[in-house]
Structures are given as structure tokens and as C-alpha cells.
Design brief:
The chain is about 25% helix and about 25% strand. The protein is an alpha/beta fold. The strands form five sheets. It has a six-stranded parallel sheet, sandwiched between helices.
Length: about 450
């Protein structure tokens, strides 16, 4: 699983990269991290960095700074640099990387990401399918200790070099004679480094989630009630057993069992005003001892068996309830919503929500002035869910989708492309009060391409 964290190339610093060779190889855009990549953490840009960007632009590159920092930090840094930027990027989540490529007006295989951290910069680029260059982080002279994360990254990098993966330099030749640049045309899943390294990374992300929750002290709702609140805000139901080519019936049955177990933890949860619902705080850790079985999960871009598989279906159902209400989504992660062929009328957000214990969570806030409640249960292999409140809200909601189509892209794969909006109406007058983009959809098709409706394929 651990090639997810290996870079395509390694350099001692951003000043030691042959940018002209990158350009010769077809790259046209560079995504830079800032802290410890271009300058030491928190420092402003300097004349040497400013000149580097002028030189890169003179070659013909477009550039973009992708940072987890807030806007004020990034804008202060670029006062002498002409470049695009995205702040609050939430690396290593892949969404901001894909937005960066789109903002540059390029393809993924025309873009390279440069950063100093394996677990954020490189991992995020790899998840997005973007070539990456790891640079040695800029360490201040007074720094004595590097920290556990830096040590883990160093050990992983050394293991990568010992495994002779460092021939993956742009312009180098693979031992079998292949131009390594051709390897960039593949969507690497970065999942074969070593089980130990993957475990380190996963443990790190889980620990970060725990620490973040402690620091933020957000009011997570854990209150359940057997009594249903009187007003139904929104409902949703869907069959849990899918059939078709390549779909394992046993995994489908296991999915229904997994969702039933999780529903029993969620059913009846009440959120008081200001409280937050957390999928994983409510459901808890997924274990065999609790009865969870292997269902279908998405690992990178592959569907495979995994413990607790199918819970993304439940997360998506709850997300649909919330989108049909005034409640505020505070954490959402997506995967492909083209997992299986659709039958009948297209339903926006019929799938596509991603949850993975515990650091890929789904959360929403009760930002209203009354209690709300979630009900969720399984009956006859069908998932049912309701969102209830004490009294009716003065609004109604629906979802709309625009530009829905499928297209074959340069990597040879088909993708579903569309924009999904949440519409808010005045309940009395029916007037449209707000139209909000909730998903700029770009989902890889995970089923047999022959089953894609031909009339929906565009070039």
C-alpha cells in the first residue's frame, strides 16, 4: 500500500531541479508548497525565491502555491511573486490538487507538485494522480530535533532509495529501457511501499484527528432518544443489494449487515442547537468483534473487499438528508459516484460520500434554533433514513444537476462530469432564495464502460 507515499523524483532543494528538462518532457505547470519547501516555516519570500519564479515563468511554466495556511499568510508571501494560489488546501486530501490543475488550465500529466512532506504534499499529489518531486525540507540552524513525523519520512525515503526506486527521475531511463517520463502517464495508486509505512501514516492521521478534536473542543452530539421528534424535514431510502457484471453478491450482503450495525448506533441521535454530528464519533471503530464484515471499499481507484465496506453508502444517505435541510455541512469527502450503472432517472448524490475511520469523517452542525434528530434503519435489505425537527422550517430544498455527461480523458479512462447544486426555496411563495454549488463532480467510472449510456458520452 505504501507507494502512495513515494515521490516520482527527489531533489535537495527547489533550486536543484532542472526546470528546463521538466519543460522539455511536456510539463507546463508547477504546484509548490510554501513552508519548508521554498522558505523556512513562517518566513517571507526572499530575492532568491522571487528570482526563481521569474526564471520558471520565463521558461514558460504556470505556477500555483498550494498551502494549508490561511489566506493572509499566502498573500503576504507572494507580494513580489506573480502566481496563482489556493489556501486552506486541506492537504493531503486530493480535491485541492485537482482544483489547482483546473485553475492552471492544464491536465494532470502536464503538472508536477513540489513539496517537502511525504505525508502531505507527496501523498496528496499521488492520490490526485499528479507527478511529484520531494525536496529536502528547509531546517533552521537552531533546530536540533526533527520530530517523529520527519524521522518516519526520512526512513521511508531511505527505504525508497535502497529499493532503487530513485531511478524514477524525470528524463531517466528505467532499468527495463522505458523512458521514466512515460510512467507519469499512469495513475499511480502509491500503494506498494510497505505495510509498515502505511500503518505509520494512518496512525498519524488518526492521531491528528484525536488531537484536533481535543483542541477545538467542538460540541459533538452523543445524545439519543427513543422518541421521534414530530416534524419530518427530509427522508431518503435506497436498496442495498446491487447486482450486475463484476459485483460480488456476498460483499453486497455483507454491506447490508455493516450498514445495519452502524444504523443502530446512529438511530435516534438528537442534536441540540450548535451541536455537531460526527459519523465516526457516533458509529465508533469498525472491528470484526462487533460483527462487521468485508464489503466493497474504494482504495485509491480500485474497488476491493475491506472490513466495514459499504458504510460510505450510509454516510451518503445522511448527507442527502442534510442537503435537504438548513443544516450546515462542516466536513465532507467525496469519492466516485459512478460505482455501478444507474437504472431509471438520474438522482444527484445517489452515492459519492467517503468515510474512513476515523480521519475521513462526515460532519454537520445544527445551526438552527431547535433540536433535530436522525433516524436510520435497515429493513428488507433497504436503508431508510429521516431527518426530523421539533417544528417545520420556513424553507424547502432540492438538488439539481447541470451539464451531466461522460467523457473519455487523456488517461484513457471515462469520467462522469457535472455540477450539483443545492436550491433553497421560500416555503410559502416558492421563490428560489439561494442556489449553492455543492459538488463540482469529476468521478472516474468504476464499472464496465460498455454500460455507459452512449447518448451521454461527449468528446
Amino acid at each position: 500500500m505504501l507507494d502512495k507515499f513515494y515521490p516520482y523524483e527527489y531533489a535537495e532543494s527547489v533550486f536543484g531541479i532542472d526546470y528546463e528538462k521538466l519543460y522539455e518532457k511536456g510539463f507546463r505547470g508547477i504546484i509548490f508548497d510554501i513552508d519548508n519547501t521554498l522558505v523556512h516555516h513562517g518566513d517571507d519570500s526572499n530575492p532568491k525565491v522571487d528570482q526563481l519564479f521569474r526564471d520558471i515563468h520565463a521558461i514558460g511554466f504556470k505556477t500555483l502555491l498550494l498551502s494549508n495556511n490561511e489566506k493572509s499568510r499566502v498573500e503576504s508571501f507572494i507580494k513580489n511573486i506573480e502566481t496563482e494560489y489556493i489556501c486552506d488546501a486541506d492537504k493531503p486530501a486530493p480535491e485541492a490538487y485537482l482544483r489547482a490543475v483546473k485553475k492552471l488550465g492544464l491536465r494532470k500529466d502536464q503538472t508536477v507538485c513540489i513539496g517537502d512532506q511525504i505525508f502531505t504534499d507527496i501523498y496528496g499529489a499521488n492520490r490526485a494522480g499528479i507527478p511529484s518531486i520531494l525536496v529536502k525540507y528547509i531546517r533552521a540552524k537552531e533546530e536540533i530535533f526533527v520530530g517523529k513525523r520527519r524521522l518516519a519520512e526520512y526512513l521511508m525515503l531511505e527505504a525508497w532509495k535502497r529499493n532503487k526506486k530513485n531511478y524514477n527521475r524525470i528524463g531517466d531511463i528505467h532499468p527495463d529501457g522505458t523512458d521514466v517520463n512515460k510512467l507519469f502517464e499512469r495513475d499511480f495508486l502509491f500503494c506498494e511501499i510497505s505495510p509498515g509505512a502505511y500503518a505509520i501514516s494512518e496512525a498519524k492521521e488518526k492521531s491528528k484527528r484525536v488531537i484536533r478534536d481535543i483542541v477545538k473542543k467542538e460540541p459533538i452530539s452523543m445524545h439519543k432518544s427513543r422518541h421521534r421528534l414530530p416534524n419530518v424535514v427530509s427522508t431518503h431510502s435506497n436498496g442495498l443489494i446491487k447486482v450486475g457484471k463484476g459485483i460480488d453478491p456476498e460483499l453486497q450482503e455483507n454491506k447490508a449487515i455493516n450498514i445495519d450495525l452502524a444504523c443502530k448506533k446512529i438511530n435516534g441521535i438528537v442534536l441540540h442547537p450548535g451541536e455537531i454530528f460526527s459519523f465516526w464519533k457516533t458509529v465508533g471503530k469498525i472491528t470484526k468483534k462487533k460483527g462487521y464484515r468485508e464489503g466493497r471499499v474504494i482504495s485509491g481507484e480500485i474497488m476491493e473487499p475491506g472490513l466495514g465496506g459499504g458504510l460510505c453508502n450510509l454516510g451518503n444517505t445522511i448527507h442527502r438528508l442534510v442537503l435537504h435541510s438548513p443544516l450546515e455541512v462542516v466536513e465532507f469527502h467525496s469519492h466516485s459516484d459512478a460505482l455501478a450503472p444507474e437504472h431509471g432517472e438520474r438522482v444527484p448524490f445517489s452515492s459519492g460520500t467517503c468515510v474512513c475511520y476515523n480521519y475521513i469523517d462526515y460532519r454537520f452542525r445544527n445551526n438552527t434554533d431547535q433540536d433535530v434528530q436522525i433516524l436510520a434503519w435497515v429493513k428488507d435489505k433497504t436503508l431508510y433514513a429521516e431527518l426530523r425537527s421539533v417544528k417545520p422550517f420556513p424553507y424547502t430544498f432540492d438538488l439539481s444537476e447541470e451539464g451531466h455527461h461522460f467523457r473519455k480523458e487523456d488517461d484513457g479512462k471515462y469520467y462522469r462530469v457535472s455540477k450539483i447544486y443545492k436550491n433553497t426555496y421560500d416555503k410559502k411563495t416558492g421563490e428560489l432564495l439561494k442556489k449553492e454549488l455543492v459538488l463540482d463532480n469529476h468521478s472516474e467510472v468504476m464499472y464496465d464502460y460498455d454500460l455507459i449510456p452512449k447518448e451521454l458520452i461527449t468528446t
